Known about the structure:
This protein has two domains: 2-43 and 67-339 and 442-500, no CATH class; 343-436, no CATH class. It has 22 helices and no strands. It is mainly α. Residues 14-70 have low confidence and may be disordered. The chain has helices at 2-16, 59-65, 74-93, 103-122, 124-152, 158-161, 165-168, 170-186, 188-204, 208-217, 238-250, 254-265, 269-297, 319-361, 364-371, 381-395, 403-415, 418-431, 437-446, 453-466, 471-476, 478-500. 68% of the residues lie in helices and 0% in strands. Keywords: Cell membrane, Membrane, Signal, Transmembrane, Transmembrane helix. Residues 1-22 form the signal peptide. Its main location: membrane. It is found in: Cell membrane. Pfam families: Gate, Nucleos_tra2_C, Nucleos_tra2_N.
Amino acid sequence: MKQVLFLLVLLTGIFFFQPAFAQQDSSTQLSNSQIQVEESVESVTTTATFVEPDNAKDKAIILLAKKREHPFSIITLLRGLLGMAVLIFIGFIFSRDRKNIPWKTVGVGLLIQVFLALGILYIPAIQITFEVLGKIFVKILDFTKEGSTFLLGDLMNADTYGYIFLFQVLPTIIFFSALTSLLFYWGIIQKVVYGLAWVFTKALKISGAEALSVAGNIFLGQTESPLMIKAYLDKMSKSEILLVMTGGMATLAGGVLAAYIALLGGDDPVLRLEFAKHLLTASVMAAPAAIVFSKMLVPPTEEINKQIEVSKEKIGSNVLDAISNGTTEGVKLAVNVGAMLLAFIAFIAMFNYTIGKIGSWTHLNEIIAEITDGKYHELSLQFILGYTFAPLMWLIGVTPEDIAVVGRLLGEKLILTEFIGYISLADLKAAGAFTETKSIIMATYILCGFANFSSIGIQIGGIGALAPSRRVLLSKYGVPALLAGTLASLMSATIIGMILG
Length: 501
């Protein structure tokens, strides 16, 4: 605990001297000349009950185009530190062995997150690195569009037919899955993962196997990454198993990451690059955060094996076989995502219709419209989730005017999936629902990760198939992994929001 208190004091000192960094332009800011604001935008809120403001003419894009209206302040710092302290306290409360919490690991993990957040905003070398990576992702989207246009022709023209999710987003998952499989076959992903795992092992004192799994989750899915440590799963301790699960909950796979860039950035290359950088940063920051909270919930009590040995198993017998296997897996994932979204959005519409009628009969709708100043005009799932999580959003530093909107997104991610959350974020951004750019960026970090109830079943089935003897433990740690993964995403958002000001 002393190390964490020291860390908070150290962070206070860092942010008092933060104006020195301000000479560098924030990577989250876009020049007004880079973005053409459309004359109008349609609010897509069929399943939501958020009412678009009258002046919401692409307000979200205007916000992203502005320089930061609110520079760093002591209030921002204090709210950020409060948010960090609250999240650490939640982890402490739910810990299964508070006396053995490795506070040094917690402190170092938080410092790594702060360094990454400062880097993406103010340190040129790190800015350039993430910008290059972001441009690679944006280019991948362009390559995907070439393949999609060949199959679909003019249907890919958003100006003519509008932005069709099925054609614009889902093909990205297929191509990126094939590309990931190819990179895995060539051994490129294994080398990058090995480097990150080495850093985690040295800095955060975790075992080589769990470090490989957490590092792999930055690029692979929550059931694909454990394949790299398949030989170790049966022998891993309880603390290590929880970290394997938490790593999957807290991060995003490369395929869906590319899809979210397309979803949030639309056809604008500048916005795509901006969201690419933030989504990449969010996924990387989530890795040390996952280590922090999983080690708080179930502290390690056994000797750890720091040896790092990457699996030599390859996906496919040759290049074409690897691409084919990746494509097949991508098609399965894209179809699964499409079907899931269809079902979930339909259920949300049905649920909102039902409780909306109840609200009408009981006159709750009029009360809701009055207390929300017309932002919500009836009882709905979005209203319930938004105001349930609003206090937590205030604690982590979200702009007070936006706490209900961002709280709704967190609720949708937990109960439904992060895909639903990002779709809502894109719709709300287009509808001008946010008063500050900071809220959009924090929401991007909050939604990063597979931390939702359906992922518990996915992990039990996926990891359990690799290590049947651990299925009972996987079932037992499903909810703790969900909690740790959620806290990890919230911590990343808190830190980035504190630095943004």
